[in-house]
Amino acid sequence: MATSTTATGRAAGPRPAGTADPGPTPRRQRLRTLLYRLDSKGSPYLLVAPFFLVFAAFGLYPLLYTGWLSLHKVSLYNVNNSQWVGLQNYSDLFSGSLSRFFWNALGNTLTLGLLSTVPQLVMALGLAHLLNYKLRGRTFLRTALLAPYATSVAAATLVFALIFSPEGGMANWVLHLFGIGPLNWEAGHWSSQFAIALIVTWRWTGYNALIYLAAMQAVPGDLYEAAAIDGANRLRQFWHVTVPALRPTILFTAVVSTIGATQLFGEPFLFGGQSGHQGGADNQYETLGVLMYDQGFRHSMLGRASAIAWSMFALLLLLGLVNTLIARRLRRD
Amino acid sequence: MGALPLLHPLSVPDHPLQEPTLNLSETTRPRRSALLCAAVLASTALLATACSSSGSSSSGDAGSSAGSAKITLTVGDFGTFGYKEAGLFDAYMAAHPNITIKEDTTTGEADYWTALQTHLSGGGLDDVQALEVGRIALATSDALSNSFEDLSKVKGVNKGDYLPWKWQQATTQDGRTIGLGTDVGPMAICYRQDLFQQAGLPADPAAVTALWAGDWAKFVQVGKEYQAKAPKGTFFMDSATGMFNGVVSSSTSQYYKGGKLDYKNSPSVKTAWDLAMQADAAGESAGLKEFDTPWQTAFANSSFATTVCPSWQQANIQKFSGDANSGKWNIAQAPAAGNWGGSFLAVPSAGKHKAEAEALVAWLTAPEQQAKVFQKVGNIPSNQGAYSLTAVTDFKNPYIGPNAPTGQIFSTAAKAIQPAETGPHAGDLQSDFSNGILLVEQNHKSATDAWNTTVQQIDSSVQ
């Protein structure tokens, strides 16, 4: 924007004074105008081109190649020797031998997504609200909030696996204090999903809280003053001033968390230890990401893994669409 | 991380569990910079360990493979092969001044194999690549066998030296032998003599061997006797999956028959499954997931009295039981001889220095070198010549039944192992069945449900 206005300004500048002095020849003048126009219209494209080139090489090409692979029978150790099978990989997923595992994984991805995303965002909003007050050691608290985010998935998951271990884990010790018998967290359907959702929540709550906090600080103070004069207490201020002002930010974090939840892999994979590759002995926490890894890298069936990848992509598009519809609805309100 | 049978013996214990706790304690430090540093350091340290299965470097020198030119041979392996530990690489380099050997090692076999598969199609292979027994059927199948050189005619390689079944495993249908055996995993049973005594069972290795000699059903029977008088809170076995693998591995008919997957009609699979169900129903099994953290902890907690004990398991027992349980473990013959684990060395056809690599492999797998590795790290040689060496037969494990004839037990078992037909998916099936038994032990499914789920799992992964 800035470059284009100065460029045209300078180009238009000399003309009114140039009647006495012929100045540059008309042809040069035309060339210059053309160059200026190219600069103003073309250079933005040039500047963003590197991103799109990199995206084409590392984003678009793999995407299309995966799509092509998903229509073939390909083994991991012999990628060049593929065999066209049409939509068979997809029919395997939806109704064939893998369907039981695919629908199970899809269900787990959704329940794990809800279990981890919803409490995470609600807690992040609450934390951000608290941190928005003038507190002693505010900077420390804000940094501490980000520490879980800086911890690697592997570190966090392995610590949580110890906490939920059936052999002397902390979670069972706490249950014992309340007189509840020991639980094999990893083996149960809901208990394992709860544990994994807890890891995700622990890691991402602080990150989202900081985003909310940044957005909160952009809310004009006089809105709160006006609300206070009208007799609104802090809770009502939160609901009627903060939350509406944060709506676009909440939408953004919801989209990002949804994408993250759809791709959930590291936590269930590592939490399961020896049976993590299939999301537990009974596939009780196998997500689509884990199923894709299992098919592609353990069973060397790249075609099928690619089909799962494209199904995940379709799922994301679908979720994105739902999200857009909700966003449009909210904007209209 | 991978399936039970696919882990290299000596890589099993290295579950990176100790580091992360440091992380959490660091985060309570009040200063922001310190905190950030700690978090960043801790996570990068973990990343570094998590990603240590770095891509292998291909042979460094571009020079010709002529005799005197200086060349670098890279050896890709996993876990502990013991060559460096036993000083074999140094000895070879001293004898061949023009050769430099670089070991390119990965801790976990599953990570190693994933990388190897990608390198096989994408390039970047080492001059020598190790193959675990769970992968060998796949490596000798038509899909992969042409990626490796035939080693049977290499100078210094004598087919008769190797255990016949071990040689056979690495041989393709058209008679090319693509891997030379390094170690094998003959099975024994390790047991807690103190718990056995408390339960009124004999504690001496010979008497214990006699309790179940020749029949795994007797082993389950002894379990019932143990459980009747068991010390409170203890179980006879760590997991029924270990016994399942033991029963199948000690049979001549396993998952394959006539070149086809035939597990549904395999007598050993049926026997093993039924015995596992019996053991679980009788409450003999602690129901632990083998190699997982709770399983490791249970060793220290003395939660079970026996574990199926391939040679490489000795290191795990000592490591996880700890000094507090020193002198409590002992070792006896398994009801039937079987093999669990062991590896091969192969030379990829894409290598630049194939002749030199082949010579190195032949030397590393010769009896003298295998005996040195055994003495240093305990890998049981696959080379029969080594079994008559006193270094092997007289071996006694100071941690496990100091006076038990451990070397004798393992070398007897290794010689008694009967060859069995195997196939590309044998490793997958072994882990699918282990998982099926867990469904009963941990998820409390009925035996029928668990069997059906296992069959579905197998059907979905075998194309």
Automatic annotation (TrEMBL), chain A:
Q: Where are the transmembrane segments?
A: 45-64, 110-131, 143-164, 194-215, 307-327
Q: How does it sit in the membrane?
A: Multi-pass membrane protein
- Residues annotated as region Disordered? 1-27
SUPFAM superfamilies to which the protein is assigned, alphabetical: MetI-like
Q: What keyword terms does UniProt attach to this protein? A: Cell membrane, Membrane, Transmembrane, Transmembrane helix, Transport
Keyword Transmembrane among record annotations: yes
Gene Ontology annotations of biological process type: transmembrane transport
Q: Where is the ABC transmembrane type-1 domain?
A: 106-323
Q: Which GO terms describe its cellular component?
A: plasma membrane
**Extent of Low complexity compositional bias:** 1-22
Highest rank taxon of the organism: Bacteria
Q: Does the keyword Metal-binding apply?
A: no
Give the main localization category: membrane
Record's PROSITE patterns? ABC_TM1 (PS50928)
Q: Where in the cell is it found?
A: Cell membrane
Which family does the entry's similarity section mention?
A: Belongs to the binding-protein-dependent transport system permease family.
Q: What is this protein called?
A: ABC transporter permease
Q: What is the organism field in this record?
A: Streptomyces tateyamensis
